[in-house]
Design goal:
With 292 residues, this protein is α/β, with parallel strands linked by helices. Helices cover 45% and strands 24% of the residues. It is globular.
């Protein structure tokens, strides 16, 4: 299938911008934070004083009458899954870029960082259904396909279903993977499955927020459009009471989610569309490296 020239041009621009960031900032941080995080079984050998008794292979020990332990080796490659929210709420932003634009750039950076590390990369796009699934593979050509889908895929549905996307992902993944879930998390009822995914895999949540969601612009009486439900509401942005009510509701939602992630040891990176995403990502990679 021939790819239109304008698509190739935009993909190339994203590649140039994100690859420069990967080479200058994220390559080393990604390698330090993620390389060798997994372990795979290699063999069994006789127990020696000082070995960790938690690694004893009780089946072999019972069969031979001597204690044996399982020996593990560091995995040489990782499987990285990008799970990206393409619902309508992503088409919002009062800074220089929409949430969806920033999601694309972050996913592209993670993709190029992964292939530089010789890791496999896969992609799942979701709204209130799984829109697109690309199985994990290596190589630049594969990652360029991933980036093309990120830039130009148009969702069939507008709402958000995080639970459904994670259920689908669990069925498709055959091995422990690093999962980057990139969304604004404007959904409900997904918390229990998020805990389960974090237990089976290495889950990192990247949450996009916009300043206007906390601080309404004072522009008088305006008609707001909910892109996901297609409903309209008139609001008075000059009303201090309404502005405070909205701020309290959003702050509570964000705070509740932060507490949930901290309690359940789920990694969370919060990114504001009005600010650079570089520092939050680099700071996260450095924190992760320090706790290894």
């Amino acid at each position: 299938m021939l790819i239109p020239a304008e698509i190739l041009k935009k993909v190339k621009l994203i590649e140039i911008r994100t690859r420069r960031l990967v080479n200058n900032l994220f390559g080393g941080e990604y390698h330090s934070a993620f390389k060798g995080m997994g372990m795979e079984f290699a063999e069994v050998r006789e127990y020696m004083p000082g070995d960790d008794i938690r690694n004893i292979d009780w089946n072999v020990t019972a069969r031979t009458g001597k204690p044996y332990i399982k020996k593990y080796e560091e995995e040489r490659e990782l499987t990285v899954m990008l799970v990206v929210d393409v619902s309508a709420s992503g088409y919002f932003g009062t800074g220089s870029a929409l949430k969806s634009d920033i999601m694309v750039e972050i996913a592209a950076i993670l993709s190029f960082s992964a292939i530089k590390n010789n890791d496999k990369v896969g992609l799942l796009l979701f709204s209130d259904q799984v829109e697109k699934f690309i199985p994990p593979k290596k190589g630049k050509a594969h990652v360029m396909r991933v980036v093309r889908e990120l830039i130009y895929y148009k969702a069939e549905d507008r709402k958000t279903d995080i639970t459904g996307s994670l259920e689908y992902l669990l069925k498709m993944l055959k091995r422990r993977s690093v999962i980057f879930l990139i969304s604004d998390f404007l959904d409900d009822g997904f918390e229990s499955l998020l805990k389960f995914v974090n237990h089976k895999h290495d889950l990192i949540c990247i949450q996009l927020n916009d300043k206007a969601e906390l601080d309404l612009l004072n522009i008088g009486l305006v008609k707001l459009h909910d892109a996901e439900t297609q409903s309209f509401h008139w609001v008075d942005t000059t009303s201090p009471r309404f502005a405070e009510m909205m701020r309290t509701a959003v702050e509570e939602r964000l705070s509740k989610y932060r507490r949930f992630c901290k309690k359940n040891e789920i990694d969370l990176i919060s990114i504001n569309t009005a600010e650079s995403y570089i520092d939050p990502l680099v700071n996260y990679f450095n924190r992760r490296t320090a706790r290894k």
